[in-house]
């Protein structure tokens, strides 16, 4: 059973992992049997990270209640997401309540070394508290992150690595943690010898996405991060990557993403206040993971990949029609199916759990109090998060709004730009028709347990309804 | 066929609409057994209403017991009207002065209405039985009324 290890470095890494989790839940097909997310972020309280960890825990809790076999057609939550290390996180030691100067023990250095350090790091760098990451300073990160290979969590990863497994690295190029952690991690994976299975890992297929600036930060005198340096830092890093990563065939599939239209986020150094809205770029980065996991790349070469969207004005809101055929094919059907289910569960739970849904009576969902189980609580939590995630993308810049989340009582007007097919008699859609779609499959289920039946019903119904009413196949 | 419909209508309900009318509709004191066409129509209507509920309307909203009860009520009313009016028309044709006679030969106006009521009550039972037979294939209402 092959595995895909995804290293998400820094805040962007966590946000892309959030999108990966959403796609996995929707039923987007990954090439590997198991996805193993690993987060590298010294900022333990980073809200982007804690939110993603919570979401992945939520996913795993749902999946624990499900049984997948060949017969089960359901693709919701089908992708295996494995929590291999505690909190999905490789901890960075000695960064808590420690200034960088203390971390490198500048006081214990010779006069010459001190002088060298002063050349490489500003006073602000040296006095920087590392408990919230490297605050956009990759020169600090490149020193501190060298120690990840010594963590027992890294050893756990290395121990579990097997022939055929793949590695994908997600990072941003314009921050601190991602920009410094990415080349270090790749170097460790390619040349390191002081961890188990290093021969296998050194030769593994490695993919990576580096995310170019796609947001700015508001000016904040209290913050040490200045988004005005994002572009210059990105340029320097790209020059380094070109020579050492892509040029040296260290990364076999190298994806680049960025956007010139940017929104200004609140500027904070990290911690619980770093909770950025989901962005289209993160979703697209997640599709790079899908692309990498589904294809084989030559380990002695580097393929550089970019992604374009259809010619649109800078002010336009994007939807599925902004994507080319291939990308639309990956995202449109599973996301539509999942959002249909999410809206039903989120907006009409009382109706869904009532006797008006014949399938509830057919499968004793009501009498067995299935709707009061922990499984349903977890599913409800997840779908709420899914809608929040879509809403965040819809109101970010550039906005990506594939769904009309205010579709009211007609769920079949939910896909932007897709007109509902009303049939010969012209009746428009309603939740009654949705229930009809669910009831259509109540006697055709292949699964036995309530949790499996519940998701199989929704998967089959949404697949049929998306096809019949929205012509999405 | 005569015996079947006589058995359905008479033993329980003949006291309701009276012996003379009972003898009349069963063909004992007349040329034709009216219970056969009225009974067949009653079964046909019950079957149609059940099919309408389970397969044509077939709405999740109506899949609760009261949805079924609404159609049961419709069936009751239609069969009451059919039973009553069928017999009423028949009596009017054969006994034009029936309701004007101080002592009706066969039945009074109330007796004819009570026959309609008996027909409606029998249609309730019929609808229930037909429901049990046809509900299984319904997408949205197969568990209605239970």
Structure overview:
By secondary structure, chain A is α/β, with parallel strands linked by helices. The radius of gyration of chain A is 24 Å and the shape is elongated. In chain A, the strands form 2 sheets. A 7-stranded parallel β-sheet of chain A has the order 3-2-1-4-5-7-9. Chain A has a two-stranded parallel sheet with strand order 6-8. The mean pLDDT of chain A is 86. Chain A is built from 17 helices and 9 strands. In chain A, α6 runs parallel beside α8. Chain A has 2 domains: 3-95 and 133-307, Rossmann fold (3-Layer(aba) Sandwich); 330-470, no CATH class. Helices cover 70% and strands 0% of the residues of chain B. Chain B has helices at 2-17, 19-25, 35-57, 65-94, 109-134. Chain B has 5 helices and no strands. Chain B has a domain at 23-72 and 106-146. In chain B, α3 (35-57) packs across α5. The radius of gyration of chain B is 17 Å and the shape is elongated. The longest helix of chain B is centred in the middle third of the chain and has 30 residues, at 65-94. Chain B is mainly alpha-helical and 146 residues long.
In short:
Chain A has 473 residues and is α/β, with parallel strands linked by helices. Chain A has helices at residues 10-26, 47-64, 100-103, 111-120, 123-126, 138-144, 152-160, 177-191, 198-202, 230-246, 280-294, 325-347, 349-352, 358-362, 374-394, 431-440, 450-470, and strands at 3-9, 34-40, 80-81, 166-172, 205-211, 215-217, 253-257, 263-265, 303-305. In chain A, 48% of the residues are buried.
- Chain-averaged pLDDT of chain A: 86
How many strand units of chain B?
0
Please give the oligomerization state of what you see: heterodimer
Strand order, main sheet of chain A: write it out: 3-2-1-4-5-7-9
What structural class is derived from the secondary structure elements of chain B? mainly alpha
Give a count of the beta strands of chain A, DSSP E runs of length 2 or more.
9
Count of helical stretches of chain A: 17
Distance between the termini of chain B: 32 Å
Radius of gyration of chain A: 24 Å
Structural class of chain A: alpha/beta
N-C termini distance of chain A? 29 Å
Helix coverage percent of chain B: 55-70%
Low-pLDDT residue intervals, each spanning 5 or more residues of chain A: none
Count of runs of 4 or more consecutive helical residues of chain B: 5
Order of helices and strands of chain B: HHHHH
Strand content of chain A: 5-15%
pLDDT below 50 for ≥5 consecutive residues: which ranges of chain B?
A: none
Beta fraction of chain B: under 5%
Radius of gyration over C-alpha positions of chain B, nearest whole angstrom: 17 Å
């Amino acid at each position: 059973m092959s595995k895909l290890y995804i290293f998400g470095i820094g805040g962007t890494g966590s946000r892309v992992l959030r999108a990966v989790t959403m796609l996995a839940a929707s039923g987007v097909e990954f090439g590997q049997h198991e996805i193993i997310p690993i987060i590298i972020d010294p900022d333990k309280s980073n809200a982007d990270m804690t939110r993603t960890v919570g979401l992945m825990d939520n996913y795993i809790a749902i999946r624990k209640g499900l049984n997948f076999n060949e017969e089960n057609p359901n693709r919701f939550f089908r992708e295996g997401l494995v929590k291999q290390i505690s909190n999905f996180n490789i901890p960075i030691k000695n960064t808590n309540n420690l200034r960088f100067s203390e971390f490198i023990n500048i006081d214990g250095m010779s006069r010459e070394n001190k002088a060298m350090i002063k050349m490489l790091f500003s006073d602000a760098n040296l006095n920087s508290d590392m408990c919230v990451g490297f605050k956009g300073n990759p020169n600090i990160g490149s020193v501190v992150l060298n120690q990840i290979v010594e963590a027992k969590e890294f050893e756990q990863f290395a121990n579990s690595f097997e022939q055929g497994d793949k590695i994908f690295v997600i990072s941003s190029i314009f921050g601190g943690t991602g920009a410094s952690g990415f080349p270090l991690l790749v170097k460790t994976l390619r040349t390191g010898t002081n961890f188990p299975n290093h021969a296998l890992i050194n030769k593994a297929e490695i993919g990576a996405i580096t995310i170019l600036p796609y947001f700015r930060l508001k000016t904040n005198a209290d913050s040490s991060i200045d988004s005005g340096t994002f572009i210059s830092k990105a340029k320097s890093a790209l020059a380094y990557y070109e020579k050492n990563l892509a040029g040296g065939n260290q990364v076999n599939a190298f994806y680049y993403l960025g956007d010139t239209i940017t929104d200004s986020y609140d500027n904070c150094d990290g911690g619980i206040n770093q909770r950025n809205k989901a962005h289209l770029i993160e979703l697209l980065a997640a599709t790079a993971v899908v692309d990498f996991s589904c294809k084989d790349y030559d380990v002695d070469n580097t393929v550089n990949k970019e992604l374009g969207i259809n010619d649109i004005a800078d002010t336009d809101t994007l939807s599925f029609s902004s994507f080319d055929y291939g990308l639309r094919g990956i995202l449109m059907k599973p996301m539509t199916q999942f959002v249909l289910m999410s809206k039903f569960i989120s907006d009409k739970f009382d109706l869904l759990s009532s006797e008006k849904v014949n399938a509830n009576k057919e499968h004793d969902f009501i009498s067995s109090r299935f709707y009061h189980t922990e499984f349903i609580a977890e599913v409800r939590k997840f779908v709420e998060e899914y809608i929040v995630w879509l809403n965040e993308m819809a109101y970010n810049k550039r906005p990506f709004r594939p769904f009309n989340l205010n579709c009211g009582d007609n769920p079949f007007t939910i896909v932007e730009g897709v007109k509902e097919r009303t049939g010969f008699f012209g009746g428009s859609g309603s939740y009654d028709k949705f229930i009809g779609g669910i009831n259509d499959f109540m006697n055709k289920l292949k699964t036995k347990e309530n949790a499996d039946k519940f998701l199989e019903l929704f998967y089959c119904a949404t697949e049929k309804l998306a096809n019949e009413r929205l012509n999405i196949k | 066929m005569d015996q079947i419909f006589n058995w359905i209508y008479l033993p329980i309900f003949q006291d309701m609409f009276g012996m003379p009318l009972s003898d009349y509709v069963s063909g004992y004191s007349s040329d034709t057994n009216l219970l056969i066409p009225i009974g067949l129509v009653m079964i046909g209507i019950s079957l149609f209403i059940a099919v309408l509920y389970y397969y044509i309307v077939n709405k999740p909203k109506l899949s609760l017991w009261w949805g079924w009860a609404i159609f049961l009520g419709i069936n009751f009313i239609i069969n009451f009207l059919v039973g009553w009016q069928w017999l009423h028309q028949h009596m009017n044709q054969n006994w034009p002065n029936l309701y004007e006679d101080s002592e009706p030969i066969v039945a009074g106006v109330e007796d004819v209405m009570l026959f309609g009521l008996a027909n409606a009550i029998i249609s309730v039972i019929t609808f229930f039985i037909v429901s049990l037979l046809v509900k299984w294939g319904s997408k949205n209402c197969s568990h209605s009324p239970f």
